[in-house]
Amino acid sequence: MSHLAPTGKWDARYIGPVPHDATYYAKCMLGGVLACGITHAGITPLDVAKCNMQGQTGIWKGFGPTFVGYSYGLYEVFKDHCTNKYKPAIWLAGSASAEIFADIALCPLEMTKVKIQTSPSGTFPTSFGAALAEMSRTKAETRYPFGSLVPLWSRQIPYTMAKFLFYEKIVQLFYTHVFTEPKETYAKTTQLGVTFASGYLAGVVCAVVSHPADTVVSLMGKPANKGKSIGTIASETGIVTLATKGLGARVLMIGTLTGFQWWIYDSFKASMGLGTTGGK
Fold first, then answer.
1. What angle do CA 180, 90, 34 make, to 5 degrees?
2. How far apart are CA 152 and CA 215, in angstroms?
3. Cβ contacts of 186-191, under 8 Å, gap ≥ 24
4. pLDDT > 80? residue 80
5. What CA–CA distances, in Å, run from 180 to 39, 170, 173, 188?
6. pLDDT digits (tens, 9 = 90+) for 201-240
7. Model-level pTM?
8. How many Cβ atoms from other residues are within 10 Å of residue 270's Cβ?
């Protein structure tokens, strides 16, 4: 399809198999809801293990907030409406812009999820509604609903920028050096295989760059750190511990999650006739 808009100018909204109009963005957001919600909810056991490093205890705690909190798909909108001169800048600006707004909505849910996962058994509600009510009731001490917004931004913005930049770049490398024929000549299973592999590799990078801030977010939910500032928690823990404790579980979790997230997202887009990511 031509990359030119009806005005004759190059436009990112016209580079795919269908125009990127309101219907396209709505379908992409629905795909994002499915991809993010299903994968984050399904990987809750690893998230709990990562938070607590305690194996199977309370392995499904935090399922509800996880499913609701990570369901967003704003990236495509920002990607198309940022400057088109440099592709990496589009991917970075688009993903960062989407994440800033998404995290404002996500913060109360993320705080609740971490509190559920890190509280000793029987000391905090584990059902979604009751946990939200308890967080609101104790907001003076939990700093609910936006007490974790800064560390959440510190974790999620680098994570999301890496997620989209490296995913897009790795897909591009696959279709430039491995699958060099036009993308449409390859079966959908091959295209989605490229999607999963690219997502998994991008997820490994995401896990490493976002892990220190993720550790801080987890520590903020522990009773022993109640009332402590972010700086105090980081100083007491130490940069090496922040960067490495639970990293193996997080690499496994984020690599798997990101690979399946992109696979579900591209599968949904393909089923809607919107095509998969990348290629010629």
1. 80
2. 10
3. 188/270, 188/276, 191/266, 191/270, 191/276, 191/279
4. no
5. 30, 14, 10, 15
6. 999 999 999 889 888 878 887 778 877 888 898 889 898 9
7. 0.71
8. 18
